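Researcher: Quick test of sequence recovery. Tokens follow.
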């Protein structure tokens, strides 16, 4: 198949597919079901007509081969279910979260439904039944996930304006910064106590260009009394519930009322306000609530780059501001 991971192309403003996130092939599951059914029929016939008859010993080896084939198909189905678990996390944490959709829930009571392979004729009917049931379950999970991805893709295609409003690029050149603190509970550099850190601290040199991460309208940050401590700060309203904040700048290149485009330079990195060193404090707010900016960077980075940022953000537990 073509590339299968749905990501957002910030240049063309469309979603494309790559290998990292894929719809599992319905044909692959159907093939497993077909094999399981054929083996189950052959096995059931052999069990009923041969087991216990004088010819049982001569057919014993063939029946054992059927058993091992069934066991192999069952293992394949278990592996497919593990893959679905990984895709479900991406589906919920990134795509459905960003589009404001309810989490996708799959009730799976058979995750630990593995078995010990042993040569026991009396266990054959139960094994054939287990393979059939797991095949049916895999087909149903495939249908649900494929429908979910179709819905997400349809939303993305219908909401071109939303795509322009989503802050999905790095606010600074990744090659020129390090991730000094992530989103969540971090140690305050001044009080040494713990408080909730609402964004990312991206450390670099004073004067490093800072970019708007989506189209929007520059707001007056000082209209909000909670802006104390950010030093020179830019706040942009992107619409659709999204706002971004860029704090501790050394220089601001835009003013309230300006319309900006994604990728436009809006200021330079600094260390103004309540800061322990040159860095950009970057926040994303969705419908008034701070959200983890790392989730949105997924769309403009390679899988390796994205994972590196996650790892780097978790290393440092003390914020810079």
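Model:
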């Amino acid at each position: 198949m073509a590339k299968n991971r749905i990501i957002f192309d910030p240049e063309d403003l469309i979603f494309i597919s790559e290998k990292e996130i894929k719809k599992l092939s319905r044909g692959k599951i159907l093939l497993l079901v077909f094999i399981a059914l054929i083996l189950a029929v052959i096995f059931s016939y052999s069990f009923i007509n041969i087991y216990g008859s004088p010819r049982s010993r001569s057919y014993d080896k063939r029946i054992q081969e059927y058993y091992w084939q069934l066991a192999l198909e069952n293992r394949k189905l278990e592996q497919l279910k593990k893959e679905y678990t990984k895709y479900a996390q991406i589906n919920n944490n990134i795509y459905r979260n960003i589009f404001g959709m309810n989490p996708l829930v799959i009730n799976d009571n058979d995750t630990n439904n593995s078995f010990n392979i042993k040569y026991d004729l009396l266990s054959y009917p139960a094994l054939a039944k287990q393979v059939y049931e797991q095949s049916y379950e895999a087909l149903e999970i495939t249908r649900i996930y494929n429908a979910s991805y179709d819905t997400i893709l349809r939303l993305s295609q219908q909401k071109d304006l939303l795509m322009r409003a989503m802050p999905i690029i790095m606010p600074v050149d990744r090659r020129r910064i390090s991730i000094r603190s992530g989103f969540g509970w971090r140690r305050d550099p001044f009080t040494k106590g713990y408080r909730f850190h609402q964004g990312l601290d991206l450390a670099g040199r004073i004067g490093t260009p800072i970019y708007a991460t989506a189209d929007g309208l520059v707001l007056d940050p000082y209209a909000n009394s909670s802006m104390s401590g950010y030093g020179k700060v830019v706040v942009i309203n992107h619409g659709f519930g999204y706002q971004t904040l860029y704090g501790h700048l050394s220089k601001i290149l835009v003013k309230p009322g300006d319309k900006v485009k994604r990728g436009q330079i809006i200021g330079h990195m600094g260390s103004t306000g309540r800061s322990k060193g040159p860095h950009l404090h970057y926040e994303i707010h969705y419908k008034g609530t701070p959200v983890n900016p790392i989730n949105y960077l997924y769309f403009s980075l390679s899988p390796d780059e994205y994972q590196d940022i996650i790892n780097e953000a978790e290393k440092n537990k003390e914020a810079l501001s």
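The first helix runs from residue 26 to 49.
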